[in-house]
Amino acid sequence: MRAKTLAATGLLLAVLAEACSVGILGLSGWFIAASAVAGASAYSAFSYLAPSGGVRAFALGRIATGYASRVVLHAAALRRISVARLAVYDQAAESEGTGWSGQSLDRVMADADTTGMALIQATTPVVVAAVMTAGGCVAIVLAGYPLVALTLAAAVIACTVLAAAAARRTDDTTRTRGLLRTELVTTVEAWPEMASLGATDQLAHRTLQHLAAFEGRRNRHAATTARALGGTRAVTATALLLTLLLTARAGATVATLVFVALLSAGVLANAERLVTAAGAWAQSRQADAHLASIGEEETRRPAVAKTFEAMYDGHGLTVAGYRLPETPTRDAREIGFAVAASQTLVITGPSGSGKTTLITAIATALRQRPGPAVVTAVLADDYLFTGTIADNLRLSNPTVKDVDVADLLGVMGLDRAGVEPLTNVGVGGRGLSGGEQRRLHIARALVTQPDVLLVDEPTTGLDPDTATEVLHAVRRRLPQAVLVVAMHEPPGDRRPLGPNWTTLSVG
Ligand SMILES: Nc1ncnc2c1ncn2[C@@H]1O[C@H](COP(=O)(O)OP(=O)(O)OP(=O)(O)O)[C@@H](O)[C@H]1O
User: What positions does the domain ABC transporter occupy (predicted)?
Assistant: First the structure.
């Protein structure tokens, strides 16, 4: 079933379930009162069978539709969540290299969940309240009490206004909580470094300030909701009293009075739920807005010029129209180059000259082109996942055999450092040294057997001999690949790059 049909079915079932509840309330109230009156009069011909059968039918209907609505609405909400999550993943994949952190992904996932659950927490109570109010008012008008129906409708409208006003003042506590969690995690991680700088007091002060701000927001939020709920209860209590008075003054029988009172109570109970529904609706609006703007706050990568083109045709890589920005050491200029298969290009330049940005732009452009070419980029801040060395290698190629893993560790010189396939890398790879992490990043790229391999600073953290060994291993393993490496300086020993290599200085 399509998501919209599923949601509509769920809403219909939820309305039916609530209608059954109100039906039980109204009918049983009327029945009890009418039985009491009939029982008191001698030789009464009052039918006990039909109303009690009706109450049982409502009870069974409520159970069936209640369960069914829950199942269907959850299925619809889960579909919404998966659609929203997939959109986030797609966007994260497209914006590769723009600094998506685990924490920001975590936050947008929470936003996707809020958007999906809005169907249950916001839409359903509003639809149920609207239909029940309309139905209740029609029933009361048909029973001959239009003024009572008007009072009921006015009370529900007043509750809606109160709920909407409270929702407008509601803070985005979900997001605040997410930001606070991020702050706390960062604080724990930064603690040893801050301790070595003698700055733990400042760190603690900063964290406490965030905690206090969160506490303040949460209290404000709770107070706003409590005020709105208090206001709503005052309105519904007054409305209930008025409906009773108006019905009694119109000369209703006791049974009808009880029927109208209970029906009104059912309708007003739904109106009270509008406060929490409006809060959930406001949160989901905020989550939608965040989802619509995802990537904007993350994008650190500058936009590339429209003239930029990168292409790999099986024989080599061609880059044209790439615009380097002006820096203190050079004017802005446009560059282009070609690197044949089996050739190596070393891009050199001082810090901040734009090497990483160029490599990322090429990788993204090549991946956006249709075709079977495998393009792999190793960037400076590549992530290692908690698990073993073998787990990390198999992330990029699940078919890698144990013997290949051991072999790769050998060619990267990692076995000498005591690193084995089953060595745990620790959180984010922090169980390994910087140089070991770098070699593992590169080994992970090698197992994808890329046609084009782009590596940013392949020798970071390595001594000259190990750096030579690693570059050698890369070229030997991928004899036919286009290899582009970005380095501050070309390596001292250039032999490992193979006979076919050129440099491009962007400094
Ligand atoms: N083509 C470009 N257009 C606009 N800005 C750019 C471009 N290339 C790089 N920059 C900006 O210049 C700065 C440095 O870029 P980048 O990190 O790519 O340099 P780098 O040479 O890799 O530096 P490092 O060696 O320190 O890692 C960044 O702020 C980046 O946004």
Answer: 299-506
pLDDT per residue as tens digits for the range 112-128: 888 889 999 999 999 99
Tokens describing residue 118: 């809005």
Torsion sign, CA atoms 364, 310, 441, 485: negative
Each residue's pLDDT tens digit, 378-391 = 988 788 888 899 99
Please tell me the class of the 3-292 domain: mainly alpha
Ligand 1 centroid, distance to 238 Cα (angstroms): 66
- At 301, the pLDDT band (50, 70, 90 cuts) reads low
**Does the C-beta of 354 come closer than 6 Å to ligand 1?**
yes
In this model, does residue 288 exceed pLDDT 80? yes
The Cα–Cα gap between 212 and 202 comes to 15
- Tens-place pLDDT, residues 19-31: 898 888 878 888 8
- In this predicted structure, what is the pLDDT of residue 307? 83
CA of 147 to the centre of ligand 1 (A): 72
Domain spans of the chain?
Answer: 3-292, 309-505
Does ligand 1 lie within 6 Å of residue 97's CB atom? Answer: no
Per CATH, the homologous superfamily of domain 309-505 is P-loop containing nucleotide triphosphate hydrolases (3.40.50.300)
Residue 357 CB coordination number (10 Å): 21
Percent residues over pLDDT 90 in the chain: 42
Lowest mean pLDDT among 48-62, 140-154, 259-273, 343-357: 48-62
The Cα–Cα gap between 462 and 40 comes to: 99
The CA distance from 300 to 310, in Å, is 21
User: Is residue 329 predicted with pLDDT exceeding 90?
Assistant: no
Q: Residue 215 class from Cβ within 10 Å (0-12 exposed, 13-18 middle, 19+ buried)? A: exposed
Q: Is residue 376 in contact with ligand 1, taking CB distance under 6 Å?
A: no
Q: What is the DSSP letter of 504?
A: E
What is the whole-number distance in angstroms between the Cα of residue 353 and the centre of ligand 1? 6
- Residue 352 CA to ligand 1 center (angstroms) comes to 5
Residue 93 Cα to chain centre, angstroms: 14
What is the DSSP annotation of 330-379? B--EEEEEEEETT-EEEEE--TTSSHHHHHHHHHHHHHHS-SS--EEEE-
Ligand 1 atom at shortest distance from the alpha carbon of 359:
18
Q: Is the CB of 308 under 6 A from ligand 1?
A: no
Q: Which one, of 236, 264, 260, 262, lies nearest residue 248 by Cα? A: 260
302 lines ligand 1 (CB under 6 A): yes
DSSP state letters, 396-417: H-TT--HHHHHHHHHHTTTGGG
Compute, in angstroms, the gap from residue 357 CA to the centroid of ligand 1.
5
ipTM: 0.96
